[in-house]
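Data card: per-record layout.
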Amino acid sequence: MTTIIDGKALGQKIRSNIAGEVTLLKEKLGRKPGLSVVLVGDDAASQVYVNMKEKACIEAGFNSSIYRLGSNTTTDELLNLIDDLNKNDNIDGILVQLPLPEQIDEKKVLYKIDPSKDVDGFHPVNVGLLNIGEDTLFPCTPYGVMKIFEEYNIELSGKNAVVIGRSNIVGKPMAALLLKANATVTICHSRTKDIPALCRNADIIVAAVGIPKFVTADFVKDGAVVIDVGINRLEGKLVGDVDYDGIFDKCSYITPVPGGVGPMTIAMLMYNTLKSFKVRNNLL
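The structure for this 284-residue chain is written out next.
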């Protein structure tokens, strides 16, 4: 029997626990965690994501500040803002919403963020710590997937895991986190030969390739765990990177789209901000 993973319920559970903890911390320290989100330009999807993050901050009891900058903002202007946020002791997390307008040097921007406030987990310091197996601020989406495994008691140690996609945001950190949990990890990408054959040997498949319904029934062995990170629009509907209906009966666990991994990303952003707050106040 296939278990549908309810990321929406788990994300809400994590966020509720955070809100309760924040209430106690405010009484003890007289301060709440602070998250600053920077949005450059008028990308419609980015505006939706930023609004969702702002709502989540309010629900968690955080101090939230949103900086909305014009689409003609320069790299230096953005770097100056980040420098100010780095120096602000009331800010525990800094998130620059991607993608950025083409005139902005994304690498310079991400590298400018104080690693201790890098709640996206994209700074090279945090990437390096993850890849040598140390605790740090992990990228939110793959970290959310790890929380799903934990909540549903899905064993990772010794399991064969295939990650489809090698982005810096999901694929690579997902592989590193699985390796940290003692899984045997294969990363597939656009140059990989015979991806279905590699997946058929997998106990766990994480699809993060950005192609609608890429993973079909011939990729999946009976009893596999299938995690769908993709969000695509197809014929007016949101679908994942997995052919959900086609593989459903073969899986032991599967995430739906929407309602699977997506809600976990914002939950883990709140988690990382609280973690940063605790570290900065010598509580961890």
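Known properties of this structure: The mean pLDDT is 96. The two ends are 40 Å apart (CA to CA).

See the next section for split statistics.
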